[in-house]
Amino acid sequence: MCAEPSDGMYLTVTYTAKEGIGMIKILIAEDEAKLRYVVSGYLKSEGYHVVEAEDGEDALDKFYSDNFSLVLLDIMMPKRDGLEVCAEIRKLSDVPIIMLTARNTEFDELNGFQHGADEYISKPFSPKILVTRVKSILKRAGLLQDSEFNMGNLKISYREHSVYVDDQRISLTPREYDLLCYLVANKNIVLNREQILQAVWGMDYEGDIRTVDTHIKCLRIKIPGAQEYIKTIRKIGYKFEAVE
């Protein structure tokens, strides 16, 4: 049975991304709660999915357990500082990293870059400028897509978190929306169930892999004509067949 959103709420995730990521998810590691709250709020208002960490160990624990498109790291954090966290992340990932710090000397900037940082923003900074820098680095990394996807009578508005067919809004659960966005982000690519499950449900998901089939079925039921472009690839998985 296909679930419906409750209380008029539709969707919770936004921009899709390439390279196997189902959404733009950002990790913020900052021990100052007020600043973390402000930065998180600005990023959420732009449609990003944000995960917060209050110290270096917390940041690494959360990074290891999820897929992130970008990491914001404060240098001066308890338990493990931002430079150490940056170096640890670089051992296994090339995810874009922006360092946030009150240290603004040339030596400090060079030190951050030598530990693997991609950008360096000195405190105090404007949250609006930070959001602009985030967008810029995501675009350079090839992760940020356009604000809309259009194909025939299907439209996905990433900023509105909404799906339309013939200008009629389609009611999807957050997971169904994530799944559709992931398929679209990887259009014309055959995806097996394991790939889809890891990208959309997360690496720590322990449920039945056939939940992918159930959610595909729901998309086909809810979105008129979806069976024409959400294709089943026998013995493998699924493909979103884009029509140019």
From TrEMBL:
GO biological process, one term: regulation of DNA-templated transcription
Keyword set includes Chaperone: no
Domain Response regulatory: 25-138
GO CC entries: cytosol; protein-DNA complex
Molecular function GO labels: phosphorelay response regulator activity; transcription cis-regulatory region binding
Domain OmpR/PhoB-type: residue ranges: 146-242
Residues where 4-aspartylphosphate is found: D74
Superkingdom of this protein's organism: Bacteria
KW DNA-binding (keyword) present: yes
Gene3D superfamilies per record: 3.40.50.2300, 6.10.250.690, Winged helix-like DNA-binding domain superfamily/Winged helix DNA-binding domain
Keywords: DNA-binding, Phosphoprotein, Transcription, Transcription regulation, Two-component regulatory system
InterPro entries assigned to the protein according to its UniProt record, in alphabetical order: CheY-like_superfamily, OmpR/PhoB-type_DNA-bd, Sig_transdc_resp-reg_receiver, WalR-like, WH-like_DNA-bd_sf
DNA-binding region, residue range(s): 146-242
Function comment: May play the central regulatory role in sporulation. It may be an element of the effector pathway responsible for the activation of sporulation genes in response to nutritional stress. Spo0A may act in concert with spo0H (a sigma factor) to control the expression of some genes that are critical to the sporulation process.
Name by which UniProt lists this protein: Stage 0 sporulation protein A homolog
Native organism: [Clostridium] methylpentosum DSM 5476
